[in-house]
UniProtKB/TrEMBL annotation:
Key words of the record: DNA-binding, Transcription, Transcription regulation
Matches recorded under Gene3D superfamilies: 3.40.190.290, Winged helix-like DNA-binding domain superfamily/Winged helix DNA-binding domain (1.10.10.10)
Name the UniProt record assigns to this protein: LysR substrate-binding domain-containing protein
PANTHER family referenced in this protein's UniProt entry, alphabetically: HTH-TYPE TRANSCRIPTIONAL REGULATOR YBHD, NITROGEN ASSIMILATION TRANSCRIPTIONAL ACTIVATOR-RELATED
All copies of domain HTH lysR-type, residue ranges: 9-59
Pfam families cross-referenced by the UniProt entry: HTH_1, LysR_substrate
Family the entry assigns: Belongs to the LysR transcriptional regulatory family.
Organism: Kosakonia sacchari
Amino acid sequence: MFQDKQVGYLYEVGNQGGIRRAADILGVNPSVVSRQIAQLERSLQLPLLERRGRNVVLTEAGRLLAEDYFASRQRREKLESQLKDLRHMRGGTISVRIGGGLITAFIEGVMREFARSYPQVFVDIVVGSMQEMLNDIVSGEADMALAFGPIGTPELKRHSFQWGPICAVVSPQHPIAQRQSITIEELLDYPLIALTENFGLQRHMNAMFKSQGLQFHPAYRCNQFSTAMGLSQAGLGISFMTAYAAADPIRLGALVAVPLDHPIASSAQCHLLRNSDRRFTPAAHHMWRLLHNAFRDK
């Protein structure tokens, strides 16, 4: 019905308040502007300009066209900027799902280097349970996930890394703090701290107790590793995680990690996951490679 160039001329006339001033800005002859707008008026069968004193202003129809042109131009410019960012490996968004016990390793081993290479990329980091992460990867809500625990056989691209042993995490004053290891049976003598059932680590704990014909009966249950660590620091019980997950308080001397004497504890793995159908941007591919290298090296 009409051409973008014609509406662009109309927009500039309304912006400048006159055909001659718009022509100067556009770098064309005023007669070209007048002719194009006249053709547009004939096409639409509507007046688009009206004179007010020495100025030319847009009619209601002209204003609607100009506003739509401006909004469309803004959208195009934003799209062009985003495409340019992708071409030059800048900008964009990466959505990452992380298991709670892997946050420290992710930030120290991956994010510092990634931020240096891609300072303009927005990284959306969500801490979640194993099932939440799997759901987000399958649905396409997340680009990649770093999960800990038994994972089954989902139809996802996966790299798995040794991430054990799972440890009994206690305050330095706890009776088992000086032990080299502890069996599942011996844990029954103390108050235990559980995570909710949808955590991969808790699934490992349940499996270890079940293999010994025992039930995991916690004194406390929480849905965050930080809460579990806080309870252990307060001397209220034994929480369970890898030494990597509790690295900061262990480094500060606030917690001690005692390995569990069980095959499942020593063979526990973390998993780097993505949907094989999802196409990565250069920035996402770089993060995937950093994750793979960081956890392979550990």
